[in-house]
């Protein structure tokens, strides 16, 4: 099931990303690996735990559940990657939320029909 969400994110987000190869495959690895790829199971749970018309609660949950575990965030909650717009997860987070919720709604509809 998680692969279904990941494929949708690659299609909608990674294909547009400046750090992707234009076909949805990420070009970053090692120390530069994107938080989206690295923390995807937790990101999925985080997004699906929130229901809101605004982005703030999603961002708050992301910082609490994912950024707090990320090696790029300092104990005072600052992140140099985020500050320099180098984190793909942070850069495309609204589109990531939209994509995950679309897939989730589609899954629920299919289960009910
Ligand atoms: S940097 Fe993140 S958003 Fe961009 S292609 Fe890689 S995994 Fe996708
Ligand atoms: S915004 Fe910073 S702390 Fe959060 S996932 Fe991206 S690199 Fe990690």
In a few lines, what is going on in this structure?
The protein has 113 residues and is an all-alpha fold. The protein has seven helices and no strands.
Q: Describe the largest sheet.
A: none
Question: How many structural domains does the protein architecture include?
Answer: 1
SSE-based structural type:
mainly alpha
Radius of gyration: 14 Å
**End-to-end span in angstroms?**
18 Å
Q: Tell me the number of helical segments per DSSP (H or I, 4 or more residues long).
A: 7
Written as H for each helix and E for each strand, in order along the chain, the element string is: HHHHHHH
Shape: globular
Mean pLDDT, to the nearest integer, reads 95
Low-pLDDT sequence parts: none
Bound molecules: iron/sulfur cluster
Percent of residues in β-strands = under 5%
Helix content: 55-70%
Strand runs, count:
0
Account of the protein in words:
By secondary structure, the protein is mostly helical. It has one domain. The chain is built from seven helices and no strands. It has helices at 2-14, 35-38, 40-48, 56-65, 80-83, 88-91, 93-112. Helix 1 (2-14) packs across helix 7 (93-112). The longest helix has 20 residues, at 93-112. One iron/sulfur cluster is lined by residues 35, 66-67, 70, 72-73, 79, 81-82, 87, 89-90.
């Amino acid at each position: 099931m998680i692969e279904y969400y990941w494929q949708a994110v690659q299609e909608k987000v990674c294909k547009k990303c400046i750090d992707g190869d234009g076909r949805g495959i990420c070009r970053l690895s090692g120390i530069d690996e994107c938080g989206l790829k690295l923390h995807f199971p937790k990101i999925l749970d985080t997004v699906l735990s929130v229901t809101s018309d605004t982005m703030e609660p999603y961002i708050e949950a992301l910082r609490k559940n994912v950024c707090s575990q990320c090696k790029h965030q300092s104990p005072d909650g600052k992140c140099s990657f985020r500050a320099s717009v180098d984190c793909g997860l942070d850069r495309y987070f609204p589109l990531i939320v939209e994509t995950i919720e679309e897939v989730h709604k589609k899954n629920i509809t299919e289960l009910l029909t």
